[in-house]
Structures are given as structure tokens and as C-alpha cells.
Amino acid sequence: MERSRIAVAGASGLIGSALVRSLTADGHEVVRLVRRAPRDDGEVRWDPQRRHVDAAGLAGCDVVVNLAGAGVGDRRWTPEYKRLIRDSRVLGTAALAEAAASLPEPPRVFVNGSAIGVYGDTGDRTVDEDAPPGDGFLPSVCVEWEGAVAPVREAGVRTVLLRTGLVVARGGGAWGRLFPLFRAGLGGRIGDGRQFWSYIALHDEVAAIRHLIDDGALSGPFNLTAPQPLTNREITAAMGRVLRRPALLPVPAPVLRAALGEMAGDVLGSQRVVPRRLLESGFRFAFPGIEDAIRAA
Q: Are 168 and 297 a contacting pair, CB within 8 Å?
């Protein structure tokens, strides 16, 4: 991709910060959306909760990437925090999509975050991008989140939806919590360990986003997961092997429910998701296997 001006919302998050590093290393101009007063020309003010974006700051951007949203696993799911999870995604996306669509020269591509949570609990059933949404809180949030891109899509901007799985990374997300436990010898399967986890290495997540930005023929939803989802039991065993620590301390389902409340249903749920459209587009994973992904992290 030629040197471009790229706006990124959620630039300080796990995926956003890695994406910004990758883009700036290749000479692209990155504009970060911030919730405070901008410090320089590389920042644009926005208030996702109030659906406000300084649209003038997006002028000249070839690409807009929205990865913003409150962390799903950061806190127990109280009614207030569930509202924040939903609003931070849906209202922020709507504001950014409306601002991008209003520009005299809209961006050529709008890339928006989403999650494999849209499919709900799929059990042992393998699902790709053609599968319908599931039932429950996270699927309903994802449906609204993806629907909020309508203004920019209807303006004729190529729009990509990133249905991201569990990102294998040391610095955050589920694995950010798993690594310290396993290093301390306290890791083990969760529940019965038979639930499928659809993971992706952080390196491959960033590479896939850039691939979807660069290929002008791609639009719509893409599952960002490794080609072969594995069970929690298989993944925790791999963690033990790579870190050379025992993985013998399972977390019983009742204990998890007591600790996490409603969120435990998603941790214990099974999602066997495959990246059919990403593979068909010609993308190649650098770390498709779980042990390689863990070592990369």
C-alpha cells in the first residue's frame, strides 16, 4: 500500500497499538482519535458516548479503522457495565461512520471491529461468515455494532467488519491473564475443557487487518481466527508445554460462575469458528498453530 493517512480509533488498545506500530513503521501517517484535547496534528477529538467526532480532523484520511470499545473481560458484568460494553461500540461506531460519510471526500475504506461473539455458543458445530447470529448478550451487541456502520456503507465506502477471536498476546486480553497463571504453575483447563476456543496470534491479527485494508475487492465480515480452532483442554495443554509448567489445576465451572457471574457463560461456551473468507482472499497465517502463536507472544 502506498503511503496513506489512516485514522485509528482504539489506538491505545491491544490490537490498536500493535496496528499503529506496524503502520508507522512502514511510513504511513496515523491519526489517533482521542477523548481529550488533541496535543498535535496527529490526534483528533471524539466523544463516542455522545456520538461526536471532529470530522474536520478526518479530512484527507484514506482509511478509517475503528477498534474502540470497553473491554468485555475487564469487569464483572453489572447492568451498568453491560451498557458500557454496548454503548462504547455501537454509539462510537455510529458517530465515526456518520462523520466519515459526511466528508466531501470520504475514505476509500472503513474498517470496523466486531467479534466472533456474534455467533454465540456454537458447540461442536463449525461456523464461517455465513452463519447467523446467535442468542444472548454478546451476539446482540455484535449485531448492533456491525449495523452501526450503515451510514458509511450507504455512502459507497468499502466497509470491512473484523470478527476477531481470542487474541494470543502477552499484553492484554484473555492471554494477558493466562500467561502469569501458567508461569506460576497455576494454569489448567476451564470447566470440562471441551469447549472450542478460536484464537489468533496478535501478529496475524495485524497482518490480516492490513491485508483487508490493502485489497480493494474485499468488504463485509471476515473471521479473524486461526484456521484450526482447538478445545480449551488442547490449548491449556499447549500452554503447559511451551512454558514448561504443569497445567493440572482446572477451574471448575461453578467456581467460574461465582467469580465472573454472567460472563462465565461466554468463557465456558464453545465457538468453533473458521476464517473461510480470509483464506479465500489469499491471506496466509504466519502462526497458524497454537504452540507457534504462544511462542510468538
A: yes
User: Per-domain residue ranges for the chain?
Assistant: 5-296
Strands 63-66 and 5-9: parallel
**Which residues are registered as beta bridge partners of 52?**
47
CB atoms within 10 A of CB 61: 24
d(C-alpha 146, C-alpha 155), whole Å? 16
Helices 137-147, 79-102: crossing angle, 10 deg rounding: 10
How would you classify the pairing of strands 272-273 and 196-197? unpaired
Residue with cell 456474534: 118
Which residue in this structure is represented by grid cell 502463536? 293
In angstroms, rounded to a whole number, what is the distance separating the alpha carbons of residues 218 and 172? 29
- Check if the beta carbon of residue 52 is closer than 8 Å to that of residue 65: no
Instruction: Classify domain 5-296 by CATH number.
Output: 3.40.50.720
Q: What is the pLDDT of residues 36-82, one digit of tens each?
A: 988 988 999 999 988 899 999 999 999 999 999 988 877 777 899 99
Q: Do 149 and 190 contact (CB within 8 A), yes or no?
A: no
d(CA 47, CA 92): 8
**Averaging pLDDT over each range in 53-62, 177-186, 281-290, which range is the top one?**
281-290
Q: Let me know: does 12 contact 30? Beta carbons within 8 Å.
A: no
What is the C-alpha separation between 244 and 257, in angstroms, rounded? 29
- Count of H-run helices and E-run strands, the chain: 11, 14
- Provide the grid cell at 215: 485489497
Provide the 10 A C-beta neighbour count for residue 58. 22
> Is 222 strand, coil or helix?
strand
The Cα 100–Cα 80 span in angstroms is 29
**143-174: pLDDT as tens digits:** 999 999 999 999 999 999 999 999 999 987 77
Q: Specify the pairing of strand 63-66 against strand 158-164.
A: unpaired
